[in-house]
Design brief:
This protein is mainly alpha-helical. It is built from four helices and three strands, in the order βαααβαβ. Helix 2 (24-34) packs across helix 4.
């Protein structure tokens, strides 16, 4: 599974949370509601991905990023760098 890098050290995520009046805990709960499996993203992971400072993480799993964006009802590309799709063919 591919990891994605958050944009702006997580500031776009924090700004989106502020616009919606969400805390990290409520965002974590919203990810459970949008997850077809009902699992969502743990509060600890939400803290790492949306936080700043020494305990923040710039990278997360694509599924985590997708659930966070869905819970915020915003495009994934607004918050994470999306790698381009390669069209190169490798000859073997």
């Amino acid at each position: 599974m591919t990891d994605l890098t958050r944009k702006g050290e997580g500031k776009p995520l924090r700004d989106a949370m502020a616009r919606r009046g969400l805390t990290q805990a409520t965002l974590a709960a919203k990810t459970k509601a949008v997850d077809p499996c009902g699992k969502g993203v743990s509060l600890g992971t939400v803290i790492k991905v949306t936080g700043s400072g020494a305990y923040a993480s710039d990278r997360c799993r694509r599924r985590t990023a997708e659930l966070l964006a869905a819970a915020l009802d915003e495009p994934l590309a607004d918050h994470f760098d999306i790698p381009p799709v390669s069209t190169d063919t490798v000859e073997r």
